[in-house]
Amino acid sequence: MDLRPALNYDVLHLVMSLLSKREVISMMGTCKTLYREGPKLLLQEVTLKDEHDIRSFTQFMAADPYHRIRYLSIFTFGCGRLSMEAALLLRVFLQFSAPFLRLQQLRLLDPEVMLRSDLGLIQAFSRIAYIATLSIRKPGALSFDLLSKMSGFVHMAILNCKYPAAARLADSNPILALRSLRNTLVDVVAYGVEANITPGRCASIVFPHVRKLRLETFAPINSVEYARAFPNLASLHFSCRMSVMRIEEGERDELAVHRNRNRMSLRECGGWSTLEYLDGTPIDLWVLGLQGIVGRLRSFMGSMDEACQDIVAGAFEELMRDIRVKQIHLDIWTSRAVRDALRTLSRTSRDLEHLGFNIVFDPKEPLADVKGMLDALVEYVARNSLRSLAVVFSCMDILSLMRDDDAEMTSAPASADECKPLLHPESLAVRIQSVAPSLRDISLELWVDNKEIGTLRRGDEIPNPEHWACN
């Protein structure tokens, strides 16, 4: 007797993937093949939101635990307070399965209340053997206790502490919070965490394999402490300010104190002198006090008024004087900010290989400013030996957000129709190649009110900044 299924396994999986979970469970009762194949679909992504989910899940797993455990891939917990019975069911399941679990993702969403229901869950979770990505949202004291006890392999950790209760805990500092995973982590993401802790408390904690760090704090960090903890970092995204649009002179002066301290400490102790990728606003990156080589830099420059733009432009110039960059991409608002950036690059970065802009400007900007922006771009390309250039112009209404309603225009505004001939990729490419005939890799785009007006792409070696952080 031929025991193979009448349908090809791929076809069988496709049919079952189109069904609801209830329908898959019903199909499992019809034959041994479906009974065996059903869990592969049902357990690929499991979310437990309440006690009913826990009871149903543990009952389902108990029917064939040794085979079904292997199919668990994405495991999400959004439970609140649990009864003694439900907490016991979950704890017993985790205690049994933890040594065998190999999860692609473990997500704990606001886990404090759930862990408080049964403190034994802390130990049970901590013994999971393998987690590719561990994500904890709104962690508290019990979550950090869990992290301190973890003994398995975790490839990537995500801490989302963008909540006041978590942000005030010193334990949310990622160096301290993730110390038990320091020998397995290669990628760390931390949002809203405590920037710094008592000096010396983390002096012996080193993450030798971490290559990527995304760090968002509410205050400047002591760069040398992080450089010591993450000595082999290749990719860094950093933010330490709530607002990326506005900055006052007083705040700038306070941040300058941190920057100077960081520059001196890094000079004395070393660290982070070579990075493959750096991402953040000019102000945030300037505060780090870095000095060295950066392969790729991506930065957002979106000031909301003239005074802020002066501060941002000044910080960007000081940053660019301290680091040597091969490829740069700027997401930037207003034509004036583009001119400021190009002037800075002309003075500080004559050896750029790639220059990219994503420029958002308003048709109400003075036409002379738009023309000046284009003249500055063409002039920069003419005077430097770029290998590739990529520019996206997006024309949309942003000036209404950037000035008071009663503010007056100082000169005649442009219009979308007037800007189109100036910015059209074909005409701009002619101007660029007339002054830089050796520049072969060019990408130019023009969008007006989120509609594509024109695109030009020449050459095959134009870097894509969306992929920079992934390499």
Write the layout of secondary structure elements.
Layout: H1 9-17, H2 21-28, H3 32-42, E1 45-48, H4 51-62, H5 65-68, E2 74-77, H6 84-97, E3 102-109, H7 112-117, H8 120-126, E4 130-137, H9 141-149, E5 153-160, H10 164-167, H11 174-177, E6 187-193, E7 212-217, H12 223-229, E8 235-239, H13 249-269, E9 274-279, H14 282-288, E10 292-301, H15 306-322, E11 323-333, H16 335-348, E12 354-361, H17 367-383, E13 388-395, H18 399-402, H19 416-423, H20 425-435, E14 441-448, E15 451-458
Parallel strand pairs: 1-2, 2-3, 3-4, 4-5, 5-6, 6-7, 7-8, 8-9, 9-10, 10-11, 11-12, 12-13, 13-14
Antiparallel strand pairs: 14-15
Helix pairs in contact: 2-3, 4-6, 6-8, 8-9, 13-14, 14-15, 15-16, 16-17, 17-19, 17-20
Q: Compute the average pLDDT.
A: 86
Count of DSSP-assigned helices: 20
Determine and state the CATH class of the domain at 32-194: Alpha Beta
Per CATH, the architecture of the domain at 32-194 is: Alpha-Beta Horseshoe
From the N-terminal CA to the C-terminal CA, the straight-line distance is: 52 Å
Amount of beta strand: 15-25%
Helical fraction = 40-55%
Global Rg: 27 Å
For this structure, the CATH topology of the domain at 32-194 is: Leucine-rich repeat, LRR (right-handed beta-alpha superhelix)
Low-confidence stretches: 402-412
Shape: globular
Compute the number of strand runs: 15
Strand order of the largest sheet: 1-2-3-4-5-6-7-8-9-10-11-12-13-14-15
Secondary structure class reads alpha/beta
How many strands, what sense, and barrel or not for the largest sheet?
15 strands, mixed
Protein name: F-box domain-containing protein
Organism: Lentinus brumalis
